[in-house]
Amino acid sequence: MLKPQFLxxxxxxxxxxxxxxxxxIDVVVGKPWRIYYTWxxxxxxxxxxxxxxxxxxxxxxxxxxxxxxxxxxxxVWGAATLHMSMGSAKHEVLLFADPxxxxxxxxxxxxxxxxxxxxxxxxxxxxxxxMKLLRGGKFLLVxxxxxxxxxxxxxxxxxxxxxxxxxxxxxxxxxxxxxACIKEKNKEEQFFVK
Length: 194
Hints:
With 194 residues, the chain is α+β, with helices and mostly antiparallel strands. It has a single domain, classed as Lipocalin (Beta Barrel). The chain has helices at residues 4-18, 25-28, 57-67, 162-172, and strands at 33-39, 49-54, 80-86, 91-97, 104-109, 127-134, 139-144, 150-155, 177-179. A hairpin with a 6-residue loop joins strand 4 (91-97) and strand 5. The protein starts with a helix and ends in a 15-residue tail after the last strand.
């Protein structure tokens, strides 16, 4: 269980991100997004990619089959919008657009697919995510509003300069964060981790 003040701070950060929302499914879906910076989550040298797809009936049915008996409450399954997978695709989330504004989502994590977790019936909460495209779609910010974990990603086929990542992370003002995928370089630039 998260402490109430911690949860409150994370929700405040999500509300701040919601201001001036910019989110376009057509920009997000398709080629992988590589995570280059994180908050409340440390992946260090690892390069972790996120892939977004439109939620097809097949994807929704599979995740429903895996998760429906484990969820505390049921989403409107037919309203699923996006499917996000991370890494080896063992980590996946089904996203449902929220009326809170562009980039706001309720999410069902498919914890059954992760062999390390064995959930109890009716014990897995729905998640709340806030996403925002930055710099005209060059960067994608994804934040879990409950846990406070956030990531700043860019398309893996067009890596940004580390200076751009650091400037964007500082402008977001989400607290202390961590550079990720640090061995990857753009045109042999030098990058020093503090």
